[in-house]
Amino acid sequence: MPLLSGTQQAEDEMIEVEMELASANEQFLCDWGRESLKAAVPGLNDMLNRLAVLNGVLIGGAVLWVEKGLMPTWARAAFVFCLIFSLTFAVFGAYPKGRIVNVNDPDDVWEFEKSSLERKKAALWWTGFALLAGCITALVGIVVSATT
């Protein structure tokens, strides 16, 4: 890797400076960090809007089931609890990580991106699990209500 060197006079002394040029990978990570940080707020707003619509539709469906008595009280309560649980994980997963990143440090950018992706992936799995558990609970409640 080529070294850049030079001298500069600072007040009454000479300072010699040596530095390495950034590799293509390091430059990519720095650019990626800058772009990711720029895209965080619009991505969060989009995700929150989608989640608000999804949550409204699912809660509306739960209210209709409560009125029509399609399922027992325990099933409705578990279904609504699963919806709230799912929404909570989705919002926390969409929320940007609260850490300041030095975009000029490739290692810091890489660690930030890696931990953000891992956190979002875990939140996605928990959100999906809660939605699936809620749907299964609702179906079991409907079947139990229909057979009694």
Explain this structure.
α1 packs antiparallel against α2, α1 packs parallel to α3 (106-147) and α2 packs antiparallel against α3. It is rod-shaped, with a radius of gyration of 26 Å. The protein has one domain (23-147). Helices cover 74% and strands 11% of the residues. It starts with a strand and ends with a helix. It has 3 helices and 2 strands; from the N terminus they run ββααα. The longest helix is centred in the N-terminal third of the chain and has 45 residues, at 24-68. β1 (3-10) and β2 form a beta hairpin. The chain has a two-stranded antiparallel sheet with strand order 1-2. It has helices spanning 24-68, 73-94, 106-147; strands at 3-10, 13-20. It is mainly α and 148 residues long.
Distinctive features:
single chain, mainly alpha, 3 helices, 148 residues, disordered N terminus
Condensed summary:
By secondary structure, the chain is mainly alpha-helical. It has three helices and two strands. It has a two-stranded antiparallel ribbon.
Order of helices and strands: EEHHH
Q: What would the principal axes of the Cα set say about the shape?
A: rod-shaped
Task: Give the assembly state of these chains.
Answer: single chain
Poorly predicted segments: 1-5
